[in-house]
Each structure stands twice: as C-alpha cells, then as structure tokens.
From TrEMBL:
Biased composition range(s): Polar residues: 275-287
Record-stated family: Belongs to the manganese catalase family.
Name of this protein: Manganese catalase family protein
Taxonomic source organism: Halobacillus seohaensis
Region (Disordered): 268-287
Length: 287
C-alpha cells in the first residue's frame, strides 16, 4: 500500500521559467536511466522477491523513494514551463508559441501536456517498460541497479552543468547526493551477496556443464596486445576458482557453416546459382 504525502521529499523550485531546459530535464524523468525506470525496476524487483527479509525491504524502500523523485522532477518541469509559451517578447508581433518552439522548447509540453511533464525522454521517445530488469536473481539485479544509478548520476551531473539556475541546481544537487548513496548501497549489497553466492551469476550452475578450457581465457580478437596488461588477462580470477589466461591468436575452432538448401516454398536462391555467381558467371540453373 502506498500513501501520498503532499509535500515533496525535497524542494523543486526553479528561479525562473526555462522551457528549453525543461525539455532537457525530461531525460532524467522518462529516459532509459531516468527516475521512472529505476522506480519501476526497484519496485518490481521487490514485489517479485521470494526471499523475505532485508533485501526485499530495502528494494521497496528505495523503489518508494524513487516515486518521490519522479514527483520532484515532474514538478520542476512544470514550473520551468510557467510563462511558456506566453512570455514577454521584445517584438510584440512575434508569436510567442512559435518563438518558444524555434528556441528549442518541446512543442508537446504546450500542445499535449498543458505545460506539464510527460513520460518521455528528452528526444520525445516514450518511456518503455523494457528498460526495467527484474530477473529474480538478486545479485544480477543489484548489478543492473548499480549500472542504472551510475548512468543516472552521470546524466544528472551533466544536466547540473547545463544550467545556472540556483533553484534547479539545488534540486539536482540533492538527486546527485542520493544517487551517490544508492551506488554505495548497491555496492554494499553486491558485496554481501558475493560472499555467500560467489561472484559469477548464477552460482547454482554446475561447472561440469561448462567448457572449462575456455572458462578463464581472455581472447585477443583485435590488433595490438595492450589488453594483455589488464587485470582480466593474468593472475587469479575474481571468483577465486581459476587463473586468467591470455590468448593472443585464439583462431577458429568450430565447423565451417554449411546450410542445406531451403525448401521450394521459401523461393530462395538455388545453390547452383550461388556457385555460378561466386565463379564470376551470371548463369541460371539448368532446367
């Protein structure tokens, strides 16, 4: 059960309207790594969690907080749109709506949303539920969450640099700090799970079903050998169960693909035509 509190978690008050910046702010609302994505991701991970206890409780804690962040950003976008497109113009003959759109404002903010936020990214692409990850494996999910918070914090920091509005920066500084905490939170949870489950997901799969001769081999498939100096190319593996091996020329160890001709109803190219074309002859198959 959710209960709405009328006050925001933190202030979302711009100093002045800025419809162009409102369009940019849509990215951290409805983008792939925006607040809508992490809100849905954490809540579904929590609702789907079959392990009662601290992890389920933590997921629902943070998922609920992300609802508050969605509300804050939506409120900020709406206030950035105040006075747009009906703003003061030096030339009274200008159409303020056209002026705002030409200046980079999202026209749908005025036409579709009535000067409000929308569940889209900064390019107008609708938020997509396929952005969310809730696999049922907590270690895999928490690593996805760490990635989401890392990308999200990066985007908020970039948006911070794109404005000088002290009110907007104040709200973004709060979100940046919370994203730092959330990254630390996921790293702590990952560390705990790795101590009991191991580092590789899933830990329940039997090694006897893996090709062990390539399980710890780093294969160089590009020019140069710079990658050979990395931690991933030598020494003990991070799961503690093997030794990294660097292979300079891995080569090909599989069969040469050879597909049988397609059945007549597919109406593909007959094999003889392909052979003739490969030989430089433009011939038709014999009748």
């Amino acid at each position: 059960m959710f209960s709405h509190v009328k006050e925001l978690q933190y202030n979302a008050k711009p100093t002045q309207p800025d419809p162009v910046y409102a369009k940019k702010l849509q990215e951290i609302l409805g983008g792939q790594y925006g607040e809508m994505s992490v809100m849905i991701q954490y809540l579904f991970q929590g609702w789907n969690c079959r392990a009662e206890g601290k992890y389920k409780d933590m997921l629902l804690d943070i998922g609920t907080e992300e609802i508050a962040h969605v509300e804050m950003i939506a409120t900020m976008i709406a206030q950035l749109l105040d006075g747009a497109p009906a703003n003061d113009q030096e030339n009274g003959a200008k159409d303020p709506a056209v002026e705002a759109v030409l200046g980079g404002m999202n026209p749908q903010h005025a036409i579709v949303n009535g000067l409000g936020a929308q569940p889209n990214d900064s390019a107008g692409y609708p938020w997509n539920a396929r952005y969310t990850i809730a696999s049922g494996n907590l270690l895999a999910d928490f690593r996805a969450n760490l990635n989401a918070e890392s990308q999200g914090r990066l985007q908020v920091v970039r948006l911070y640099e794109m404005t000088t509005d002290p009110g907007v920066r104040d709200m973004l500084s709060f979100l940046i700090a919370r994203d730092k905490m959330h990254q630390n939170q996921w790293m702590a949870a990952i560390e705990e799970l790795e101590q009991t489950q191991g580092a590789v997901v899933p830990s329940t799969f039997s090694p006897e079903h893996e090709k062990q001769d390539v399980a710890y081999s780093f294969m160089n498939f590009s020019e140069g050998e710079e990658s050979s100096t990395g931690r991933w190319a030598k020494g003990a593996s991070l799961d503690g169960k093997g030794m990294f091996e660097y292979i300079q020329n891995p080569g090909a160890n599989g069969q040469k693909p050879s597909l049988i001709p397609s059945p007549p109803y597919i109406h593909g190219t007959p094999p003889v035509n392909i052979r003739n074309m490969q030989n430089g002859k433009d011939m038709q198959a014999p009748n």
